[in-house]
Amino acid sequence: MLEPTNLIYGHSQEVPTRRGPTPYINFDNAASTPPFTRVMEALCREARWYASVHRGAGYKSQYSTQLYEAARQSVGKFVGVDFDHDVVIFTKNTTDSLNKLSHYLPFLSGEQVVYTGVEHHSNELPWASKDSYCIGLDGYQINLAETESYFQANAGRIKLLAVSGASNVTGYIPPIYTLAEIAHRAGAKILVDAAQLAAHHPIDVLPPSDPRHLDFVAFSAHKMYAPFGVGVLIGPREIFRHTPPSQVGGGTVQGIGPAGVVWSEPPDVEEAGSPNVLGAVALAEALKVFREIGWDSIIENEKILIRRTLEILRELPDVTLYNPDPDNRVGVISFNVAGHHHLEVAQYLAEEWGIGVRSGCFCARSYVQRLLNLTPTAIYSAQKKIINHQPQLVPGLVRVSFGCYNQLHEVEKLAQALAEFQSRC
User: Fold this and answer.
1) Any idea which architecture 4-30+294-361+396-424 has in CATH?
2) Dihedral sign for Cα atoms in the order 413, 419, 422, 425
3) What keywords does the record list, in alphabetical order (predicted)?
4) Which of the pair, 270 or 16, is modelled with greater confidence?
5) pLDDT tens column, 69-128
């Protein structure tokens, strides 16, 4: 593991607190990650050669096109894409990717999308206009028995299973390859929202002939230490070839005339306008850094942080943990302190200690409401508070989320801060 000061751009940056400036501790990596230093260096190096891609005859245009397409190949290699079958499309972020896919997948009358009880809004709301079914939970985990039973009973009717690769609320990692087999046996495809998984665990989409093949995968560069506006959508080339694009304009057409529109081939057909070349370059460089650090190192460091943080939170009085299991998870830990609003805890950590965590529902309100056992009356009350511009009064959680650069001494500082909060507040 590289030293964080060298690995992360701005890692030693001091922030103001009530006690004076202090080095920032970022425990909000599930929301977004800071850039790798190497990513910043790559951006500065390649920006001098930047020009519009694909149709420019000039040297810089040709060079930028090579960079952009090389980045696409790097992303595909990172997750094991077979480019003869699948395509890598650059988008704005995971949310954009999932919305594009909801446009592309045609649903006939009676066809259904199934999603799970742990989903982020971005993998729930795009399917709201479809006939949909939500798989329930067994504790903090997806109920596999219910999933198997439902797919068997509705084989041929279910079009898609949409599932998070890792929960942004509890860190739980669903068994995506088992779920892929269940979906495929019923004639459905699987979509993995890998926004919270891609920076923590290796992903292999596997060959299309494999029953565990991941048909669609989406993730964001800004959660992978390249926060410059690029997302990824991976899926079968043929699906994007036979449906008009979700956005039309420059780059999406090969010709227009009396015979109609001749659409470009994927991925071009779904990358309308001038693409984010430098964002793609940033992601490609970040993937190089991941390979150099190594997954074993990343996973082992995260396990140490998870176990110690769970231990600390269990030892503190009046703390409720949401998913206390140290295994089968990424470094996302949510909790509450009895008698204190989640925002109060988060603000204290930030203002007194320079520790950045997140509080609220994390764009997963359906899941958080279930975790809090909110009644329909309580949910309605929370909605009224939002309508009345009082979101700070809505029930929620405090979330700590780790990056590959976080260290044990930062967790110990969190322990001190929480103990002090409980003694003073």
Assistant:
1) Alpha-Beta Complex (3.90)
2) negative
3) Lyase, Pyridoxal phosphate
4) 16
5) 999 999 999 999 999 999 999 999 999 999 999 988 888 889 999 999 999 999 999 998
376: number of Cβ within 10 Å: 8
Q: Which CA distances in Å does 266 have to 66, 90, 240, 263?
A: 17, 11, 6, 9
pLDDT digits (tens, 9 = 90+) for 203-256: 999 999 999 999 999 999 999 999 999 999 999 999 988 778 888 888 888 889
Domains in the chain: boundaries: 4-30+294-361+396-424, 41-291
Supply 327's token pair: 């295994």
DSSP 8-state symbol, 35: P
**Is domain 41-291 in CATH 3.40.640.10, yes or no?**
yes
Encode 264-317 in three state secondary structure: CCCCHHHCCCCCCHHHHHHHHHHHHHHHHHCHHHHHHHHHHHHHHHHHHHHHCC
> Active-site positions?
363
Q: Is the dihedral of CA 315, 316, 317, 322 positive or negative?
A: negative
Q: What is the CA radius of gyration of the chain?
A: 22
Q: What is the number of other CB atoms lying within 10 angstroms of the CB of residue 360? A: 19
